[in-house]
Amino acid sequence: TMSGFLDQKYIQSAINHLLVQLFPLHFKTKSEKNQLSTLGIKYPTLRDHPLHSAQIWLEGRRADDGAEGLWRIHDCLYDFSEFVDVHPGGKDWLKLTKGIDITEAFEAHHLSPSPEKMLSRYFVSKAKQARNKPFTFEEDGFYKTLKKEIYKELSTVPKHPIQRSKYITDALFVTYIFSAVLAVHLKSFSVGALAGIALSMTAIAAHNFFHQKDNFRMYYFDFTFMQSRDWRISHALSHHLYPNTVNDLEIAMGEPFLQYLPTEKNFVFRYLSWVYSPIVYAFFFLSSLLRTLMQIGTPGTEFTWPILLPFTVPLLMMLVTKESLVFCSGMFLWIIIIGSVHFGIVGLNAGHHHPDVFHDGDTARPKHEMDWGIFQLDAVMDRKEITGSHFLVLVNFGDHALHHLFPTLDHGLLEYLYPVFLKICKQFGTEWRLSSQLETTKGQYRQLAKVEPNPKPPKPLNKKSNKV
């Protein structure tokens, strides 16, 4: 009947109004979304896909980057097809990035000048489409200058901290396995909680290794149900290269429940998120498993054996303790949830989310100051309690600014690079922010509540010569 039809229209209109109020970002028009990035980045294709997976993010990049099915670096297209299997860092880095703009990844992942000299062998043509990123890498700019100085400094720093990073990570992994089995043997959920924290610390330390060339320690990360292969995309290729922007997949993954960009938000997401955020953290690991299972069998998604690694732990629990499948599964679930909460607390309070840190939507620097390295410093602050301790740096995402600038370097080397880093910062008049853990934690909650963008751009550079 007509009245029934009108009722349905009214109900649908009411539902749509409610959804717009709850999720305003997801119901903006295309032109409104394109205005969200004050850096001028086109709103990413598929950014609002409900799955927020690494593979979907790559699909969106392929649609936006103008790489024409090849690999784009700056304004040139290259065909690395014959180089994939012999790439020193492992073939996945190139397999995953075919069809996208890898400018920032190429610059940040290669300190030696040798890879740049090899590019001419694989050159195909100039790109037809302008780059969808504002960041520059001028030879006399901040990042290129710093990279040259760091490359020279690396020949003088000790190498034993690299081995120490391996020992620490291995010890954390063994601690996780031992405490997980012991928790079942003692039927102690307190020991299980310690196992969960050991798992989280293992994963954070293992993140040091999935940034590097292929190695077995990067697979420690997969014991959380999060996959190192996917995190090479969502973390290394997305968050690390474009932190706090519309292109940062880790920002998108938290939405709509955790909204860090300074856009329109309702009361629930501004303030109640302070209360329910630990619940969101508790499902970080399990949601990764669910996302993986939902993608199995879909086109372009490969089944990789590390998916099975987490399940070896409850199996070991049963074999060693002879306890039932039900009890071992329950304890394992408890360990996973505790580990997930710890991982979320450490990760989201590591220094990116603070009102004084740049988030897309805030007033951006002028174009002539859009050096990629300077942008990295605008989007992060370090914690003074963490800096200086190899162990704390490794298990707390420490030395965050230097790690963002040089992600493939082992965390153990970063403390030796501060003199050069601070010298170049002073030379260019840019700042390295050092804060307390308490301040970064408080700042994270303030950023969730923030709706008004910063009206002033980050601190301007000085006018002095930038020659070394």
Summarize the structure in short.
The chain has 468 residues and is an all-alpha fold. Helix content is 52%, strand content 3%.
Strand order of the largest sheet: 1-2-3
How much is the radius of gyration in Å? 23 Å
Class inferred from helices and paired strands? mainly alpha
Low-pLDDT residue intervals, each spanning 5 or more residues: 464-468
What is the end-to-end distance? 80 Å
Instruction: Estimate the strand proportion.
Output: under 5%
Number of strands: 5
Taken in chain order, the helices and strands follow as: HHHEEHHHEHHHHHHHHHHEHHHHEH
Give the % helix: 40-55%
Main sheet: strands, sense, barrel: 3 strands, antiparallel
Let me know the average pLDDT.
91
Specify the number of helices.
Answer: 21
Q: What's the overall geometry?
A: globular
Task: Give me some keywords for this one.
468 residues; two-stranded parallel ribbon; single chain; mainly alpha; disordered C terminus; 21 helices
Q: Mind explaining what this structure looks like?
A:
There is one protein chain. The protein has 468 residues and is mainly alpha-helical. It contains 21 helices and five strands. β1 (71-73) and β2 form a beta hairpin. The protein starts with a helix and ends in a 19-residue tail after the last helix.
